[in-house]
Amino acid sequence: MKAVKVLYFASLRELLGKSGDTLPLDVEQTALTIWQTLNPNSSLPESCLIAINQEYAAADSIVNAGDELAFFPPVTGG
Amino acid sequence: MNKVNIHPAPFNPWREITDFQETNLQGLCNYGATATFVGTMRDFNEGDDVAEMELEHYPAMTEKQLQSIIADAEQRWPLQHVLLSHRVGLIKPADPIVLVSVWSAHRAAAFDACREIMEALKHKAPFWKKENLSSGESRWVASNTPGFSED
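Above: the input entities. Below: the structure tokens describing the complete assembly.
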């Protein structure tokens, strides 16, 4: 079965105590559903940004097997 | 000609501009304006002394976003060249963090595009700063300061 690769960055990575997850996926799901499956004890922070295959996406965006899904706090570069 | 650099070690923005000019702009006479912004690390933030900073990023997404930010600016202004560099890793006060350099025929496009690229980077490029304070405490920077001064 194919899987989705999930990444967490910065304060979110520290909060969850992990930098990523791998979730087997047989049917497409939303980014939010995947978060809820992987992190049942932490609700998705309101300010959290989401990217699918390195492009910005929304909580209700569809994720397919083989995609790279990332969750991270507001960016503070520059 | 556009160039994006991610530097895991300290870099000299002024030398980088010189190298870029000497490598890519030799013999070209199509630009009349160069605008440059350099961001460096302060040793204070929100009333506290900052000893150093850790700059994390999402490598696969960073370059894509920076290229996309340059492409957006090119849609809005006639730009000849863009040089965009950003540090990652452990940063000390006075270290350069970011360089935006824009070459255009006229100053309006150079000034405006340089500022817009910097603002877009602040809001879209996946970088995160963690401050290690002189007191020994560490904290993530939660949000950006405003990019426009108040009247």
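Note for the figure: The two ends of chain A are 40 Å apart (CA to CA).
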